[in-house]
Amino acid sequence: MCFFRILLLSLIGTFLLKSQEVPEDLIGDEHVREEFGVNRFTTPSIKKLFEQLDELGELPYAELKRELPKSIPRDRTLVALGLGTLISDGFLIIQSEEISELENIGRAVLKQAQVLGAGKRVTKYTKSILENSVLGKWDKLKEELAKTQADVEAEMVMLRDVDIANLVALGGWIRAFEIAAVTTHKNYSLERASKLARTDLIAYFVETLQGLEPKLRKKNHLMEINNSLEGLLASLGGHEPESENSEPKKNPSKEDVIELASKARAILTIIESAK
After folding, report:
1. Considering the chain, what is the average pLDDT of its residues?
2. What residue segments make up the domains of the chain, in order of their start?
3. Are 169 and 149 in contact (CB under 8 A)?
4. Is the pLDDT of residue 216 over 80?
5. Shortest CA distance to 170 belongs to which of 68, 78, 64?
6. What pLDDT sits at residue 149?
7. How far apart, in whole angstroms, are the C-alpha atoms of residue 221 and residue 214?
8. Signed CA dihedral, 221, 225, 230, 234: sign only
């Protein structure tokens, strides 16, 4: 046990040296992430992303619902990205209180997690999610889904596959960003639109992609996603990491928000269509 703890700390230390910190407001609950051996700086919490959506108004579920994947890609990076999008779909379903959809999303999450080698860990949460959905315990459901992300990350770190853990978070953020953009367009205000202009988070994921192992970084779909994120960052005025000004350089107009949603959908299409 001591050996594994030392190994885990070593891996996490290596990871911290090669990537910038996650924005503080998107770090998940420490007791949840530490419980599973995942350092608090590993990845942005998908749960935290969705907590911020509470301020955007009612989510237009019928418009945001998408077809679940019929097959699982052979490429592990695509599986990881896809798993992240599914976890975000789970939060969308829970936030919209669409009980009838939970079983399907739970099975889809489990299948993707099994391919990554984290199926055993995720199974217990899938069961708990279904049980709590029947009881209508929505806050508990969010906690269990958040633990699913943390547990997959922990398993990837133990397998020396931190890049895959990062891609799970990236997939989750891209889907959450699309949901946020579509919702903001429906309930537009300048204040809500400013929340989309999180250039610090976009810059974090650009740097994450550029810090992947060379053989992963050269994959066509990851290069396409990186280019798309760089374009998205540029459209919002770029990011100055040393700047103390937290205000966005550009507050998106209603027309800009439509374009942001379109850019997010284009990135998701890369993930959904690649094999």
Report:
1. 78
2. 2-273
3. yes
4. yes
5. 78
6. 72
7. 14
8. positive
